[in-house]
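Trying the structure run again after the queue cleared.
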Amino acid sequence: MEITGEDKHSGVKSISYQIVKRGEKLDENGKWIAYDGKPVSFEEEMDFVVYAKIVDQDDNEVIVSSERAMVEKSAATVRLAPNFTEGTFTNKKDAAIVATVQEGTAALKEIRYVVNGKENTTEETVFGISDLPDGKYDVIVSAKDILGKEVSAKVSVKKDVAEPVLSITGVPTSTVEKATLGIEAEGGISGIKEIRVNGKPYNGKTYEVTENGTYVFEVENNAGSVTTKSITIQPVPGSSGNTAPAPGATEL
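Done. Tokens:
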């Protein structure tokens, strides 16, 4: 920094200066640093204004100020803390993200966040992002300081709170020797993880029943939601009542 002063009548007697940091005020009666004409360097990280007092040979004085200046060594930071595991599907209805924006040397100018393509702004430096819609998308939080420097952070959201759909068709309404049940399942946004019959994984689209009893069908999606259907088969002639998969049924 260099300070120059001029007085066309009596000439400049002295130049001194004060450095006033952001949040502080000029103290005209306080300590002024004599300026010797050499460049002044600043190494301390700060946001400041320089005030110069110029005194002429008649002891008239004037105080002028610089534009706002800054020695910036630390930029703003953005931290995101989701209450779910990033990168895997969640079925949490209250899935949310807490964003924390830390100001650097320069004051913050704006904070923006994007949820599933929709942009929002806030003046809060710590805030929650809730009511996340189902789907696969990124939540991006950006902070820009008064110098135009911008930082951002993102969380990849994969959310599916809908229950998977399970339908069992072909259930007999009377006594039969065997029944072929149809399995129709839909896992939603996250897709099907597994179908189970009586607790055992099953990959067929049909299930043949030759024993009477209750059969429990389950479908689980990749978000962890499970839908269950219980089917009771009427007594089959000669049946022992076993609910184990019938011979020939396809199991994983």
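The chain has no helices and 19 strands. Worth checking whether this holds up in the mutant runs.
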